[in-house]
Amino acid sequence: MTTPAFARQDLLHRDSQINERIEDALSQHDRLEAVADVLQRQLKAVENHLPPALIAALHGQPLGHPLHPILVHLPLGGWLVAGILDFYPGHNSTETEHAADLALLLGTVGAVGAIASGWTDWANTRGEARRTGLIHGALNETAFLLNAASVLARRKGRRGFGKVLSGTALLLALGGGFLGGELVYRHGLGVGKTLATPQG
């Protein structure tokens, strides 16, 4: 029987293997660097025309920590609830459909702030964190566009097509969320450097 200690070591080993594969995949694509260079220049150009107070707010400076991790809960939560209501067997009532549509709409509207704050933070990244962040942002923005299309499709009566769009978007958002975790826990993006390491 595997002991808890061995189980933890096995999970850590598997996590390390997954992270190494992600790093290898990202490091082999020079095109990502070229795309990142262009996109960061464009973002900086946009920032130069925005009020400094708005940029500071998107970074979360008034809060004392990044804004993006707070805002991502609304789109992910809304999209996940919509997915559960859409595809859970035996829940096809009109009330359930309305609830799914509302959750999808709230998540999609909430994604606007999450996207804006996320790209604002990413504009200052470098190296592997920049490449990972680029894929993270691309996945989530694609999910946003698919969900926006799903909202429109549902309103036009094309519910089946809308569910396909939002279901695909949810998978992309979950993948983007995984990479978001990599940015925080592996690369320390947005983490205060003065925080003490937990003991025990």
Subunit arrangement of the protein = single chain
Counting structural domains, the number is 1
Number of beta-strand segments: 0
Measured between the Cα atoms of the first and last residue, the distance is: 26 Å
What's the rounded overall pLDDT mean? 84
Low-confidence stretches: 193-200
Please summarize the sheet with the most strands.
none
Structural class: mainly alpha
Shape: globular
Strand content: under 5%
Query: Using only CA atoms, what is the Rg?
Result: 19 Å
SSE run: HHHHHHHH
List keywords for this structure.
single chain; 200 residues; mainly alpha; 8 helices; globular; disordered C terminus
How does this model look, in words?
The C terminus is likely disordered. The protein is 77% helix and 0% strand. It starts with a helix and ends in a 15-residue tail after the last helix. The chain contains eight helices and no strands. By secondary structure, the chain is mainly alpha-helical. It has one domain. Helix 5 runs antiparallel to helix 6.
